Amino acid sequence: MAGLKLVNVNKVYPNGFHAVHDMNLDIQDNEFIVFVGPSGCGKSTALRMIAGLEEITSGEIYIEDRLVNDVSPKDRDIAMVFQNYALYPHMTNYENMAFGLKLRNMPKKEIDQRVQNAADILGLQELLKNKPKELSGGQRQRIALGRAIVRDPKVFLMDEPLSNLDAKLRVQTRAEISKLHHRLKTTFIYVTHDQTEAMTMGTRIVVLKDGHVMQVDTPTNLYEKP
Ligand code: ADP
Ligand code: ADP
Questions:
Q1: Cα 3-73-38 angle, rounded to 5 deg
Q2: Quick one: DSSP state of residue 84?
Q3: Radius of gyration over alpha carbons of the chain, in Å?
Q4: Beta partners for 24?
Q5: Cα 187 from Cα 28, distance rounded (Å)
Q6: Burial of 214: CB neighbours in 10 Å, binned 0-12, 13-18, 19+
Q7: How much is the ipTM here?
Q8: d(Cα 130, Cα 101) in Å, to the nearest integer?
Q9: What is the pLDDT of residue 49?
Q10: Of 104, 191, 198, 203, which alpha carbon lies 20 to 30 A from 159's?
Q11: Which residues of 36-71 are buried (b: 16+ CB within 10 A; e: fewer)?
Q12: Residue 99 burial (CB count, 10 A)
């Protein structure tokens, strides 16, 4: 049934700070969900718990109906795109995209098919032999997207992926990510503090404040109703 489900999820950091309170979400397979809210409201913490990068204090997280509380990040069928791209500078762009698959011992031929396919989708064919430092910020972000796509995950997680780009590139890349979502028809969870980004990209928006979910609704219902 559902792509992703959170049931009464809480995060209390070791210093006692309660960063996420009783979060409940039921997300379908092809939704584009945006977590929006001011800095410090718990967006990253929530995303990192879904990714398995942050332990949850209580509650349950299900990905494709599988309880993943005790499943390691690499076995969760998710791929995360970071704001700083986190590309390896000594590797070519091809190797950067192939790396996660190599670690999983995927046959070379299948790795190659997946990297070529992702490069086609993102228009990266000409850049595969280059290294990340030879690329523009926007191109680097596309390599980082490619590295996520090759994994063929059930859920894409993106934490402020455009915050290092200038305004013009941000608008362009925003459109590219939306297109990617249409094409892949899989669950995207996207974190931003930018309301315009939330409104233009999300099929549903989760508004967070002080670690609480304040509203969950479509952009139209949230922003256009009087
Ligand atoms: P956002 O992504 O919305 O900016 P975060 O999820 O990063 O918010 O942080 C939520 C709150 O949790 C913030 O007040 C932050 O200071 C606090 N926080 C984040 N990481 C830790 C940590 N390791 N220990 C204690 N508090 C933390
Ligand atoms: P992914 O599947 O997200 O590409 P891998 O399974 O290839 O990641 O990760 C192997 C190791 O490489 C991770 O434990 C981490 O140390 C490092 N790594 C890979 N991708 C990233 C990233 N985007 N940011 C930081 N470290 C990463």
A1: 70
A2: T
A3: 17
A4: none
A5: 7
A6: exposed
A7: 0.74
A8: 19
A9: 98
A10: 104
A11: bbeeebbbbbbbbbbbbebebeebebbbbeeebeee
A12: 16
pTM: 0.85
Pocket residue to mutate for ligand 1, from 44, 191, 195, 206, most atoms within 8 A of Cβ:
44
Q: In the chain, which stretches have pLDDT less than 70?
A: 1-2, 225-226
Q: Please give the pLDDT value at position 223.
A: 75
Among candidates 54, 136, 140, 55, which has minimal Cα distance to 96?
A: 140
As a whole number of angstroms, the distance between CA 5 and CA 194 comes to 24
As a whole number of angstroms, the distance between CA 12 and CA 151 comes to: 31
Residues near ligand 1 with C-beta < 6 Å?
13, 15, 17, 19, 37, 39-45
Structure tokens that stand for 65 in this block = 């109906």
Please report where in the chains the tokens 């304040």 appear, as a residue: 214
Task: State residue 66 phi and psi, 5-degree precision.
Answer: -105, 125
Beta strands 204-209 and 212-217: pairing type? Answer: antiparallel
Q: What is the 3-state secondary structure (H, E, C) of 170-208?
A: HHHHHHHHHHHHHHHCCEEEEEECCHHHHHHHCCEEEEE
119 vs 15: CA distance, rounded Å: 44
Structure tokens at 148: 């996520």
The rounded distance, in Å, linking the Cα atoms of 16 and 150 is 38
Residues having CB closer than 6 A to ligand 2 are 74, 80, 82, 86, 99-100, 103, 147
- Letter for the amino acid at 82? F
Q: What is the pLDDT of residue 2?
A: 65
Residue 36: the pLDDT is 97
